[in-house]
Amino acid sequence: MIVPAAWSINRPLILSALAWVLALGSLARPPGNPPTEFPPPMKTVWTACLAAFVLLPALADGLALMVPAYFGPRAGGDWDRLTAAARRVPLIAILNPASGPGDAVNPQYTRAIQAVRSAGGRVTGYVSTAYGRRVAEAVKEDIRRYHDFYTLDGFFLDEMSNDGSATSLAYYADLRQHILRLNPAYHITGNPGTTTQESYVTRPTADTVVTFEDGTGYPGYSPSAWTKRHPAHRFCHLLHSVAETSALTNAVRLAQSRNAGFLYVTDDVLNNPWDRLPAYWDAEVNLVERANRDAAEARPPRLDLKHTGGDGARLEIHGTAGRYIVLHSPSSPATMAAAWLPLATNLTFTGELAYEPLLFTPRPMALFHARVE
Fold first, then answer.
1. How far, in Å, CA of 77 to CA of 96, rounded?
2. Domain spanning 64-292, CATH architecture
């Protein structure tokens, strides 16, 4: 479907939530400029045009996997299965060599981390905080060692307190500042493992909080009402001891309805329910992939192309979590998408992506095409 419009380079046009839209300009992403995922969180095709506008709230009805990967890397093992999944769905693997970083670099973990990240996934480092009772300097030392030993994407602060006291909030806010001084792009997950106070999100102390971690009770679990005021990628649910695939399927449905952007379900059991992937791992990845496609079908994302001045442009995607294939085609209204050229493939757990710099010229027209697969 072509949308009729009076095109003008001097007066940018604002269009959104369209199946097909044309943009004046010929754009190509220079090599070596990867997409940026915004920090806050298809078989159908969507595109949009050169625009200047106020951003609408992100739709985050898709899902990402957050996997406590508390198992060692070995050839053909579970870390390789994580790598394969990271090519298909948004995924964060939680690294835990020795209830923390250990005393030295482990080359096998280095290779495993690199493989997951190269596939499009992320890896964060496990650190215990003992519900705010662990000395902050000891926590920071673990964080520094992870940072020195491995190329990571953030940290998983386990045993997070949930009382909302001023002392507790200050403790975790200080850890957050320490982490962001090491790398402002680090993603921080806090794990109280149960309902918590909204102040941990709004302060903020973490980008994502785990508000459910248990082996029973998920069907009857009721999230705090305040969680609906925040994007889904701010919340994670971790389920263990789930034996049946029918319960797995139900958990995926419930997580989406409960505004949880991250989920992990396993049939592994206590004492350590995170020391292997579940027997139904492939089915879990398939369910999350399908959920992301369905979410994108139901609530189509926007592609917005912004002229940033001179010959610069920025392509923004505002949608749901998933694996995005982005292509462009220098074309004309008569021929439409005569030759689609790959621009980028990227995964997002927030539903927000940006590609820049793109090169802008007044002619010819360019079509942009994106789909969640």
1. 16
2. Alpha-Beta Barrel (3.20)
